[in-house]
Amino acid sequence: MPEWSPDGREIFYVSPEYNLMAVSLKITGDTVEPSAPRELFHLPAMDLTSVISPYAVADEQKFLVRVTPQQFINLIVDWPALLNKSAAAQ
């Protein structure tokens, strides 16, 4: 399930171990030189035979990851304000 980065200089894919991998591409003239693959993070185990990708590339630093209903995500909104409150209380 490969996906290109928005600038076209990196390609992402899922490894057999459910890791999101990245390969940078150095484009010089008519040649393309790929970097060694690097692991970005582990994805939740899921059926990779689905036609729906388990992730989407937002930009080079952000990804949207599909999770199954059995998994829960804690979303903390405005977390910098929580840090400020904690620092002020000390």
Describe the model.
The protein is mainly beta. It has one domain. Helix content is 12%, strand content 39%. It contains 1 helix and 7 strands; from the N terminus they run βββββββα. Strands 1, 2, 3, 4 and 5 form a 5-stranded antiparallel β-sheet that branches.
Give a short summary of the structure.
This protein is mainly β and 90 residues long. It has one helix and seven strands. The protein has one domain.
Mean pLDDT: 82
Could you tell me the number of beta strands?
7
SS class: mainly beta
Count of folded domains:
1
Q: Write down the Rg.
A: 18 Å
Poorly predicted runs are none
Proportion of residues in helical segments = 10-25%
| Overall spatial form | flat
Distance between the termini: 48 Å
In this structure, how is the largest beta sheet organized? Answer: 5 strands, antiparallel
Number of helices: 1
% residues in beta strands: 35-45%
Order of helices and strands: EEEEEEEH
